[in-house]
Structures are given as structure tokens and as C-alpha cells.
Fold:
Amino acid sequence: MTEPIDLPFRTLAPWLRETFWRPVHRVALDAGSTCPNRDGTKGLGGCTYCDVEGSGTGALRTGQDLVEQLEAGLARIARRRKRDEPEVGAIAYLQSYTNTYVDQSRFEEVLAAIDPYLGREVVCLSVATRPDCLPDDSLRHLERLRTRVPVWVELGLEAASDEVLFAINRLHTVAEFDDAVARAHAAGLLVVGHAILGLPGDGREGARRTAEVLARSGCAGVKVHQMMVLRRTQLAAQWKRGEVECLDLETYVAWLADFVERLGAEQVLHRLTGDAPVENRLAPDWSPRKNDVRARLAEALEARGTCQGALTPNPA
Structure:
């Protein structure tokens, strides 16, 4: 579906069209990584909202080779090509867990598997990781690839409060996020910052504060979604005890409007809402189409007479 051109916020689809001049779709890849608050280096059990798949596909743990995953994904998105459209491009998305939290030899091996496709079927590389797990060696490997395709480093901030980050077992700090963004930018990489609205103890002011930190950081892109309670998570136990609540749709859209007003006007919104299979999701009880959330957000901002960046604090 073609997006309206007059939305009061910037979305990803127009950026992709302007950059690549052809349809582009993500291919999610699982490189079998873990993270430091699961293996005991920092903590155990992972972030309270994160299930055992680490927001990934689980493909590698079923024995599916990384190249096989990529080939299958490329074949899948090729079938989405319409008759009169140009060839479809792919974003190779290293999604699961913390992809730079590995030995450098393993990181090189993962990138080498993708390398032959760069600049051909793969028009962009995206690497999800934590801000406290981004060594300079990994940045150097990615910096070499950025001469061939755009390279995104996706960093989870989630909330701009060290207290909240500790409570949800993230176990990194806002300062570490700022440092990771600055070092990625120094390497010429694009950064996509992640945020979750409605985390325990964060509140509406927390959502606003997180947007302000993301704006200040200069991230090229932002992903934001509502807090969800998934089965097989620490948050599920808290929710069942009545200790946490999820935002209803109306509240989420209102907070999302606050959030978008405080982003930088040029930041690209890669995501506005999250989803999970109904069999895995305990709460909230709503999971609207992405287009619905986008339309509701546009209506909310238009009713306020504002737009993305309208309330971005002036830089010091």
C-alpha cells in the first residue's frame, strides 16, 4: 500500500523508495547469538519482557544455516514482486539477541556469509545489538562494509532512565547508549534507536524523556512499540501477579504522539507498534494493524496542530 505523502511524521517506506528506487523488504536472520544478561556476565534471565527466542526466529537453533536462511528469505521476498516492479531488494537483518556479543572471529564469519550478496540482492545491512556490547573491532568490520551498502546499527535504549533499565533487567545505562551511538556515527554508520512505551515505572514523562534522548543522540532512525507481555518471560509472572499493566490503545497513541513530537524532525520512524503471535502474547488484548496505528497517530497530531519534531528541545 502506498503511504500518504502528507503524514505529520517521517516513516520508513518513503526513505527506502528515495534511497533505493525499488521495493525493499527485511530478511530476518538468526546468527545464534546470546546476550550478557542471559549468560551470567551481567545477569541471568534476560530483559524482563524478552522471551527465550530473543525477538528472533530461532532458525539457527533448528539447524538452519545462515546462508540457507538468507537464501530462503530472498526467495520469499522475490515472490512479493509485482509484475511491473523492478527487482526487489533486501535488508539483511541480524535480529536475534546481541549480534556483536560474540568473538570477533565469529562476527567475521557471520558477515562473510552475507558478504557475497551485498550490493546485489542485499541493498542494506542491519545489525541489532546492545549499546554495552559494541566493541571497536565490530565497528571496524561494519565500517568496511558501509562503502558498499548502508549499514544500520540497531541499539536498544528502550527507556531513558537508568532506574527503569535496571528494573527491567536491561543492565546498561543511558550514558552507554549515548557513547555507542557516538562511536557508531564516528565509523560512518547509521543508528536506529529502539524504545518501548509503557515499561514499569516509566510513565508518560518517561516516554517523553526517551524521545528527547533519541533526538539528542542524532539517531537516523527510531523504532518504538508498546510494552507487551509475552509467555515465557519474567514480565509474564509480574503481570499475572497484578504488578504491571499494559497501555490500552487510546493511551498508547496519546503517549506515542508525545513521543513523536519530541523526536528530531529528520529522524525516520522504522516502526510505530509491535506485534507478537496471539498464542505467545498475554497482554495487551489489542494488536491493531500497523496502518491503523499510523492513521490514529496522524489524527492525534493533527488534532493537536503539531507534527514530528514540534516539541524537540533546542540543543544546548
